[in-house]
Amino acid sequence: MITLLFIVRKINAGKIEADTPPLNGGSQETTNVYNSFAKLCKIIRISNSAFFSGNLSWAYSMITDALKLFRKVGDEKAIGIACNNLGNTLQAMCSDFHFDGECCETISDICILKSALSNYDEAVAIAQRRFDATTEENEKAKCAQELADRMFNRGLFLLLVANDGCAPEDARK
Prior knowledge:
By secondary structure, the chain is mostly helical. Helix content is about 65%, strand content about 10%. The longest helix is centred in the N-terminal third of the chain and has 25 residues, at about 30-50. The radius of gyration is 18 Å and the shape is globular.
């Protein structure tokens, strides 16, 4: 099994770079996996930078690309993180467009609220599965914290959009 460690990140002159250990030798498959993980790392960093700088459409684009790649490689923990980040990005977008009693807004004919809730639900479900499957005490505590954070994000989102026409009827509960 190949373990890839992304140890240090640098931001040089506004350019985000990932320091990945050099790959020497190996098969074409190993090189492809290595390059995929390096790309995923950069995508997540760019998405986070875009989110915190207020460029929500760019953050949305980057995190949806990352989610597609995480699904392709089957990394459930990374899928959970990306779904949670995508939910947070969509929540911020929904806050910009929110109108009481109406659908907040759509992206490519997809309701932002419903998409955010779907992503939060998937992130919570993944965190719950990880919590349930973990037996080691320290790891179980980390999984419990992750699950609590994901549930908090989903709950806060539901409270913020409870009056929206697309919100579930029991959103306040």
